[in-house]
Amino acid sequence: MICHSPLQSAFIDTFSLRLYSFFYAFILPFLLFLKTRVPLLCYTPGMSRNAVYAALVLRVKPSGEANRDAWFLTAEEGVIRATVFGGPKSKLRAYAAPFNQGTLWIYHNPLRDSRKVSDFDVKNWRPGLRELYERTMAADAVAETVLASHGGGGNWSRALDLAGKTLDALEKGDEKTCPRTLVHFLWNWADVLGIRPDLGVCASCACEAPRDGVLWYNGQDGNLYCPSCAKGAGFAVGPGARLWLGHVQNLDPAGLERISLDRASLVQAGALAAAVLTEALGKRLPTWDNVFDS
Ligand SMILES: [Zn+2]
Question: What is the value of pTM for the model shown?
Answer without folding.
Answer: 0.82
